[in-house]
Amino acid sequence: MSTGIMVVGRFMLDELFAGADVYVITPLWTTEAEVPPSQAVTGYWKSLLVEDDPDPAFRTYCHLFAARRPWRRGCIDDLLRDIADDKVAGVLITDTRLLRIHHPYDGGADVFLATSEERDRVRDRHADWLSRHPLGL
Fold first, then answer.
1. How far apart are the C-alpha atoms of 86 and 105, rounded to whole Å?
2. For the chain, which end, N or C, has fewer CB atoms within 10 Å of the first or last residue's CB respectively?
């Protein structure tokens, strides 16, 4: 991850979560319903059956792990680096009321806010971050 991207990501996360606790939700995908033993005690939240195929070899489960932590700058830098390097995917960072959600991925992030007014304020403050493509891509 380039330093510039890391700084932009930190700035947005600080803006969204400064002074609050956050949940960092990380998925682990498997073909087994059981929670992987190495992960079972590290913030396990729930498992979801994603693909219910009659053939057990093609069933897919998503095991979700959630860690609550006070937000401070840099507290998830290693995780953001792993996301940028495509080592981890599907991570969500959210406030404890699930009103603001930040979904980073390799190459960017999606931000979900509680109201359209808040969305518009954030968009206007960061207009230079938006795509210049006519379709917003």
1. 8
2. C
**DSSP track, the chain:** --HHHHHHHHHHHHHHHTTSEEEEEEEEEESSSSPPTTTTTSSEEEEEEEE--SSGGG-EEEEEEEEEEE--TTTTHHHHHHHHTTSS---EEEETTSSSEEEEETTEEEEE-SSHHHHHHHHHHTGGGS--STT--
Closest CA to 20 of 97, 95, 89: 95
Mean per-residue pLDDT, 114-133: 85
Cα separation, 94 vs 102, whole angstroms: 6
Confidence of residue 115 (pLDDT cuts 50, 70, 90): very high
Q: Tokens for 5?
A: 């991207």
Q: State the Cα–Cα distance between residues 90 and 65, nearest whole angstrom.
A: 11
| 67, 43 Cβ separation under 8 angstroms | yes
* pLDDT surpassing 50 at residue 106: yes
